[in-house]
Every structure is written in structure tokens, then in C-alpha cells.
Amino acid sequence: MHPLQTLWDDVRELSLGTTAEISRLPSPPSPLNFLRDFVSANKPCLISSALRHWPALSNWSDDSYLIRSLSSHPSDDPSLVSLHLTPNGRADALAPHPTDCGSDSLCFASAHVERVPIGEALEMIGRSGEGFVAYAQQQNDCLRSEYSELAADCEEDIPWATEALGGCLPEAVNLWIGNQFSETSFHKDHYENLYAVVSGEKHFVLLPPTDVHRMYIRSYPAAHYSYSKEDRKFTLELDEPARDVPWCSVNPHPSLEVKDSEVSQFPMYFKGPKPFEVTVKAGEILYLPSMWFHHVRQSPDSQGRTIAINYWYDMQFDIKYAYFSFLQSMRFVSMHNSKSQNQAPADEAGSNLKDYLHINGSIPNLIESFEESEDF
Ligand SMILES: O=C(O)CCC(=O)C(=O)O
């Protein structure tokens, strides 16, 4: 067996479990248990009955409450919230390259972002699917800035997590308001994430940092959508100056038409150990450990909406971080000249599993190269 496959199996057998399930706790853990069993082990868990006391759980299903609260800004201007618009609900995700139309090259596409009053944002989210998809979110501590008038309806931190993580308040607290049309592509963050769902459900697919090679991280040219309200049209343009973004190539939910081709392009993902899957319901918190890869979809509540808050705490840049970074910096270059687009040769992290993993009987000749890889 290839050493990488041994690693994937070992972490499951020794720590994470061999099913696609993560640990479930019926109520919040003590800080000590949380630190010992989950943070130190870099292991996710789902905590039920975690937000019972939050007024947000009842208040935020009422649009007029949200609009009233966010219009009572101390200045005369109503506060504006960041609304991310895309043609298909996939922001910060791979999309067909805007100019290289003849091939199947891809780019990394960011959303068109507008700052609008909350009433308009809610209306646009409700109309998602009519030629655009709207997702109210901004990963810049937006609960404590754009939505500060709502902050009293939840907690400024998750107390048992704050204590376990060293006593400092979260670095950022972000609010996400969307529905089933928006999804978040596979990526990882350098934060300990306490992800609290207020309404609707979030569906996570998770992979541990040890499985980094299964994500086929490659460099893609950065691009951004612009949306014209008059024409109701999106255009996708490459960023200027040009820059590349290293991003995960795998979509865990390919449509039936492309499934076979995705499986053959990304066999280490589709044929390796099952990823962990968890649905987080209103009132629950997911502990998503630092450096874990996550892909997120959502289902709305009866009002047609999904609302969540993530608390990003500083992670420890400790020995685990050093090991994970080292692992990510290992690039495997096949001797066979596998054809792969958008990719520097050193990035050919197993576009063809047979080239270097023991799946079909033998491990052919390999060159293993250790190269600096960009953070993402
Ligand atoms: O809820 C989402 O759409 C994405 C959440 C996420 O990526 C995060 O909390 O890091």
C-alpha cells in the first residue's frame, strides 16, 4: 500500500473512526473535555442543544424584526450588508475560464459583491434562482460590524470554547444568510471554527488535513463576476493584475453527466476512504477543526432561508500545523506525462491515481518531489 493510503487509513483507525460519521455530543462539553478530546486531537464534533438560550433562534425568522433592527443605526443611514451575487450560487469556486473557451480550462471565480440594505438583501435571496443567486455573507467579522445591531441576539463567543482555546475572544464572527441555491466549495481555514446554525440546515463534507492530496490543489487564474442589474447579466473577467489562486479541484457532488469524468480525474478523492458528512441543524454547533477541508451546502427553513454564524478562533501554530504543512508541501510528480490543465508540472498531485497509488496492483515508477507550495 502507498504510504499516503496508509496515512489516510491510520488516522481513521487510530483517531477519527472508520465510518463517515463524526462524534455527537448531546450538550456542550466542559472546556477541559473539549480541549482534550477534540481540539488537541484535531477532531470534529457536533454539539446539540448548544444555542437554547439565543433569542436569534426565534427572532431571526421574522424579516420585519431583521429589517427593523438593522435600520435603527445610530447614524441616519440604514446599515448596509454585503450581498454576494453569482449566476449559479458558486462563489470562490472553479468556473469555466472566460477567455480560454476552446478548452476545458477553469478559473477561480469570486462573486460580485454589493452593499445593500437588509430588506433588499432578503428580497434578493428569496428571488435566487431567477438568473442570479444571492448570499449575504462577508468573512470579515461582519456580525460585529455590518450586523452589530443583531449581535445581542446571540453570544459574542462560545464560552466553553473560548476557555478551552486559551481565553481570547474569537478573531472574527461571521453571519451567513442564504438558501439552497448557494454552496461553498472545498477549502480550509487557519482557524478553529465553531459553526452555529440558527435556522435551516447546513450540510458539510469534511476531510482531515492528512488527506490533502485527495483535494488535487492546483493553481487557477483569479477572476471575478460583475453583475449588471439593467441587463440582468453576469460577466466573468480575469483579475488585473493577473494572479493565481491555489484551490481544491474536487466537487464532491458532481452531476450525473460529469460524474464519470470527475471520478477518473480525481480518483484519490472518489476512490479513497469516505469523507465525513454531517448535517448541522438549527440549535446545533459544529466544531470544525483548523485546517480541515470543508464543502458546504444548505437547506432552508420554512421561511426559505438558512442562517448561520461562525466563530473563528485563532489556531495554535503548533507541531500539528508543522506536520500538516510539511505534508501539503510534498508534491508527487508522475513519470507518466499525464495531461492536466491549469497546472504547473510540479502541481500534478496525482491527476492519475494509477500513476502513483497502489490501486490497480502496482506502483509504477515515481518521482517524489518536495517543493514549496503556496498557502491557500
Ligand atoms: O456556510 C458556508 O457557506 C461556508 C462556511 C465556511 O466555509 C466556514 O465557516 O469556514
Automatic annotation (TrEMBL):
Domain JmjC: 134-328
Gene3D superfamilies in UniProt: Jelly Rolls
Pfam families in the cross-refs: Cupin_8
Classification via SUPFAM superfamilies: Clavaminate synthase-like
Protein family per UniProt: Belongs to the JARID1 histone demethylase family.
Protein name per Swiss-Prot or TrEMBL: JmjC domain-containing protein
Natural source organism: Kalanchoe fedtschenkoi
